[in-house]
Amino acid sequence: MSGFWQRSIGLISLILFSAVLWPIFGAVYALLFFSVVMLWSIIQHMRHIAKLEQWLQHSDHTAASIPEGFGAWDDAFAHLARYVRTHSQSREQLSLALQRMQRATSAMPDGIVILDEVDRIEWCNPVAEQHLGIKLDLDIDQQIIHLVRQVPFVEYLAARKYSKPLILNQTRHQKLVLLLQLVPYGYKQKLLISRDITRFERLETMRRDFIANVSHELRTPLTVIGGFLETLSDENDANPKLNKRALVLMSEQTVRMQHLVEDLLTLSRLENAQNKIKEKEIDISTMLHDLQMEAESLSNGHHQIKLNIATSSRLLGSDSELHSAFSNLVSNAIRYTPEGGEISINWEIQDGRGLFYVQDSGIGIEPEHIPRLTERFYRVDSSRSRETGGTGLGLAIVKHVSNRHQARFKITSKAGKGSRFRIQFPAKRIITPSDQTTQAVAK
Ligand code: ADP
User: Fold this and answer.
1) Is CB count within 10 Å lower at the N or C end of the chain?
2) Which residue among 332, 398, 402 is best mutated to probe the pocket of ligand 1, counting the most ligand atoms within 8 A of its Cβ?
3) Ligand 1, atom 13: nearest CA belongs to which residue?
4) Ligand 1 contact via 360 beta carbon (within 6 Å)
């Protein structure tokens, strides 16, 4: 039987029963009975409608909170409960899927912003908050261009050319360089993906600067040599005095280029992570005596060079790398200390750690330059550096050698008074005389 006839059985029974009553009790009683039952039925319907309305307005809309009904309403409420149950199940599944999606996108290293058809923020992950200076709680439904105001970004968004990414210097909260890419999806929605390329850009700038610096360093000696060669080839009558002078200057420039290339090769070896240090026990005392002799020949009697060796402890490290670092510091001290100045080369143990330092009474360095001295080609006074044969790479080499030996490199200086360059080696690299005896006995 269909639902309609099932629902109509009550009404049909009432009409039939009233029709039977009519001949027995008369029309008035039959109609009165019919009206009373109809009235009761209408009141029942109104009661159920009120219950339904109340449920719709105030309840939490769970299946358990659906009111109980009577007759046809019982069926209707049972259907409603079934519908609410399935609906809430799929809503739960949907919200779980959404949570999973948000967790996954939150874990991504890239920033993700979901924009609606008029570029308002619908959602973003924490990385995007950090990249673009967004606070999702406050900025939801805000136009993205109110938060990322840089002109290139506003133009990029307006152009709607999604194939090309945009490189943006984000300065609102921090100095970040971001790669931004818009990806259209759904109904006029967009994903804005941001990637932090600050490190990459910095490396790229360093690479560009490095090439520019090397080219600049090589250009001067090459120009000098090229100039002389041109003059010599143009000259008909050889002038032996001039030729001799030209040859001396050309060989000076050649030496300068050789030093530059040697330092560049040393730096490249030190920077190569594959190139592990060849460690051995180094007798620092012997190395520093050799270094003092080299320094005296470089100074040519113009400075007083002292050697203070307070320990016979040896150092575990690379012979060639440490010699290169120490000799760079000693030659700098000579080059930046005027005639008559004092230079000391020192080796001692401090709190179990090995301390090598070079102290000079030279020209010193203004404090603002100190943090940048280990950058490649950074010089306080370029002409003085070049005149004295400097390549601008010495302290960069010292820093790399220190790092490779887990040592700390520190510069302290007073302009006009002198400087101290110290390398502090960790205790694990120090071999004390008692260790040496134990090893000798064991052998
Ligand atoms: P350079 O070949 O120019 O000496 P370095 O890397 O060895 O290159 O040093 C970088 C700069 O640090 C030098 O150009 C110089 O300005 C400064 N400097 C280094 N050592 C000293 C020192 N002992 N006294 C004063 N300035 C120094």
Assistant:
1) C
2) 332
3) 379
4) yes
- Domain 204-271 sits in CATH at 1.10.287.130
Distance of CA 117 to the CA centre of its chain: 31
- Looking at residue 19, its amino acid is A
Query: Candidates 1.20.58.340, 3.60.20.40, 3.40.50.2300, 3.30.450.20; correct CATH number of 108-196?
Result: 3.30.450.20
Question: How many Å lie between the centroid of ligand 1 and the Cα of residue 314?
Answer: 28
pLDDT in tens, 289-323: 999 999 999 999 999 999 999 999 999 999 999 99
Q: Pick the residue whose CA is nearest to atom 20 on ligand 1.
A: 332
Residue with CA closest to ligand 1 atom 2: 390
Is the beta carbon of 380 within 6 A of some atom in ligand 1? yes
Whole-model pTM: value is 0.68
The closest-lying atom of ligand 1 relative to the alpha carbon of residue 328 is 7
Which range (97-106, 148-157, 203-212, 342-351) has the least confidence?
97-106
Predicted local confidence at residue 441, as pLDDT = 42
* Residue-wise pLDDT tens digits, 34-73: 999 999 989 999 999 998 998 888 767 787 788 888 888 8
| Residue 211 structure tokens | 């090439």
State the closest ligand 1 atom to the C-alpha of 333, by its place in the atom list counted from 1.
23
Question: What pLDDT sits at residue 330?
Answer: 97
Kindly state the tokens that stand for 385. Answer: 């550096």
Buried b (16+ CB within 10 A) or exposed e, 312-327: ebbbbbbbebbbbbbb
Candidate CATH numbers 3.90.1150.10, 3.30.565.10, 3.40.50.300, 3.10.290.10; the one for domain 280-435: 3.30.565.10
Q: Which amino acid is at 373?
A: L
